[in-house]
Amino acid sequence: MNMMSEAAVEKALDKKMNDMTYKMIGNDVSVYYGEKRALFDVNLNVRENTVTALIGPSGCGKSTFLRTLNRMNDTIEGCRVTGKITLDGDDIYDKEIDVVELRARVGMVFQKPNPFPKSIYENIAYGPRIHGLARNKADLDQIVEASLQRAGLWTEVKDRLHEGGTGLSGGQQQRLCIARAVAVSPEVILMDEPCSALDPIATAKVEELIHELRANYTIVIVTHSMQQAARVSQRTAMFHLGQLVEENDTDKMFTNPDDQRTQDYIMGRFG
Amino acid sequence: MASTHILSAYDEELKYLNRRISEMGGLAEQMCGDAVRALVNSDTALAQKIISDDVILDHAEREIQDKAIVTIAKRQPMAADLREIIGTLRIAADLERVGDLGKNTAKRVIAVQGTGVPRKLARGLEHLSELALVQLKDVLDVFASRSAEKAEIIRARDEEIDAMYTSLFRELLTYMMEDPRNITSCTHLLFCAKNIERIGDHATNIAETIYYIKTGAQLEGERPKDDTANTVGAPAE
Predict the structure, then answer these.
(1) Between chains, do B80 and A227 touch, taking CB under 8 Å as contact?
(2) Is the pLDDT of residue A2 over 60?
(3) Residue ranges of the domains in chain A?
(4) Residue B234 has what pLDDT?
(5) Is B217 touching A (CB cutoff 8 A)?
(6) How do A79-87 and A90-91 pair as beta strands?
(7) Which of A49, B148, B163, B205 is the 20 to 30 A CA-CA neighbour of B178?
(8) Chain A partners of B10 at a C-beta cutoff of 8 Å?
(9) What's the CA gap between A138 and B175, in Å, rounded?
(10) pLDDT digits (tens, 9 = 90+) for B35-93
């Protein structure tokens, strides 16, 4: 791909983003952990083929919101979600929804790389196999290779696919986890501080990957690094004390935000 | 600044940059006022002092640049902080240019020394320089107060300087036409007038930068312009 066409692709993606095609829509989303309310009527829409960054101080509810998007909160005892969240118009909290299928469509990458204690190959193959995405070994091989390619890991691991995934470096492990998320052909990928355990070089590689993944997926990323949010995202949402304070174009957010609380937070000031 | 950074050293760095800009501004203002005084009084000693003072201004600009770059690298400033630091760099460059213009005027003192400056022209130059220096002084006050409204007012006032410059231009042409022996000194004075007019332009730049620092938006619309000197003497259509 030459420079021109890359710029053209980028432009097409931006246009798609500005067409306001919402992949997921959050309406008055509130979350309670037992008696404690963690999110207050959040209205946040996730645009298609867009990287949306969620920022805010610890305990502001950004991870909580992220987890509502693929019902990760279901696994937490006493957690209750109200409001409505849709994926392509379908209510993901509907009783008819198969949560396992939902999580295949809305994949997740966690803070600490958590490869299965199995081979690199098996780490990737596991998901497609249980979801019945491969008819035979050749299909599966193909998915494994394509996923590792997408995650920018293929050339580094192609000669040792059957060695343990936990033997990789931290950065490689995280990209393995991204490859694993990609393997089941998700539509949305959620990332919860994917680089906080990585060094700057590994972080740069993951960020480059996020940039490339935008062409095929919708990405929502929680990050504590403002610079990272500024680098990788097109839209940024700022949370504070369980409320959505501001959602804006990333470029605007980091040069001239509308809300004083956003301003204070990104500039490292007391509110 | 309404609130302070969690890191107090960051506040100190920003305060340092602000203080240095104010110092540069004060010196530039003084140099330009002295330059016109030296010119009308044929004071070559004062002219020499201005020429040597310019080094201080150049040095201050480089120092501001170095500090600003270190601050950007260290703090990765965002939003208003980022605008402030980038704005500081631009203002420092404008003030350095103002110093150069003062120095250039001072250098011409020696050239026009023999002939002297006709009283009427001297008054014109003094008046032009008063207007420009008021602009410079006011814009430096606005830098301290960060008032976007006042920055807008200063920008609009540049028109007066332009009009004054055009009339001085015509006057100099008249002198040259009256007596060719005036050409050398009048040409120097023409450059001096242009230098002063440019000081006004830099004050306008600074006003625009302050507006940007404060609001994050650029001042809309064309700059008010009343500098028609570039068409004086052109055949009428």
Answers:
(1) no
(2) no
(3) 23-266
(4) 73
(5) yes
(6) antiparallel
(7) B163
(8) 268
(9) 94
(10) 999 999 999 999 999 999 999 999 999 999 999 999 999 999 999 999 999 999 999 99
Give the per-residue pLDDT at B23. Answer: 96
CB contact under 8 A, B4 and A270: yes
Parallel, antiparallel, or unpaired: how do β-strands A235-240 and A243-249 relate?
antiparallel
Positive/negative CA dihedral, B123, B127, B133, B138: positive
For residue A262, what is the nearest residue in chain B, using CA coordinates?
B79
B2 lies in a domain?
no
Residue B55 buriedness (CB in 10 A; 0-12 / 13-18 / 19+):
exposed
Domain count within chain B: 1
- In angstroms, the CA B114 to CA B118 distance is 12
**CATH class label, A23-266:** alpha beta
The closest alpha carbon to A222, from A104, A49, A68, belongs to A68
- Please tell me which residue of chain A has the smallest CA distance to B11: A269
Please report residues of B whose CB lies closer than 8 A to that of A267: 5, 77-81
Q: Which residues of A touch B73 (CB under 8 A)?
A: none
Q: What Cα–Cα distance (Å) separates residue A234 from each residue in A17, A88, A207, B205?
A: 9, 20, 13, 32
Please give the pLDDT value at position B4.
86
CATH number at residue B99: 1.20.58.220
Asked, for residue B114, whether it belongs to a domain, the answer is: yes
State the ipTM, two decimals. 0.73
In-domain check, residue B115 = yes
For A225, nearest residue in chain B (alpha carbons): B76
The pLDDT value recorded for residue B115 is 75
First-to-last alpha carbon distance for chain A, in angstroms, is 46
| 8 Å CB contact of B3 and A226 | no
Position A18 pLDDT exceeds 70: no
Helices (H), chain A: 3-18, 62-68, 99-105, 120-130, 137-150, 154-157, 170-183, 200-213, 226-232, 250-255, 260-266
Which of B78, B212, B213 to mutate against chain A (most A CBs within 10 Å)?
A: B78
**Do A254 and B79 lie within an 8 Å CB cutoff?**
yes
Q: How confident is the model at residue A134 (pLDDT cuts 50, 70, 90)?
A: confident
Determine the distance in angstroms separating the CA of A257 from the nearest CA of chain B, rounded to an integer.
7
pTM (predicted TM-score): 0.82
* pLDDT tens, residue by residue, A173-192: 999 999 999 999 999 999 99
Average pLDDT for A107-128? 94
Q: Does some domain include residue B232? A: no
